[in-house]
Here is the input.
Amino acid sequence: MRDEKGFVWVRPDEVEWRDSPMGGGARTSVQDSDPTKPGIYMQRIRYAPGMFTEPHYHPDDRHCLVLKGTWYMGTGEVKDIAKAVPLKAGSYMKHPAGGVHWDGAKDEEVIVQV
Here is the structure.
């Protein structure tokens, strides 16, 4: 919800999930602004068990907070899930602009806020 002064709030039961352009069972929910445009935004990504992205990068820094589950992160052009770093709920990770990485979930649903 957004009020006339610009304050925004989203309660857990109000989160609206949509299929992610990443595919593979990922879902996204944008809480504020537009993640496809320059500037600050707030988005959640929900990874289905076993879902990993392919190596990719973003043009801007991304600040990520794990809200649920254990998120697995890897860096570089080669996706090797055995070398992924596990990040439990409460963990933070910064993806620097242009940094090639891949990420996902192993055996449980994972929610990350970006």
Observations:
- The radius of gyration is 14 Å.
- The chain has a mean pLDDT of 93.
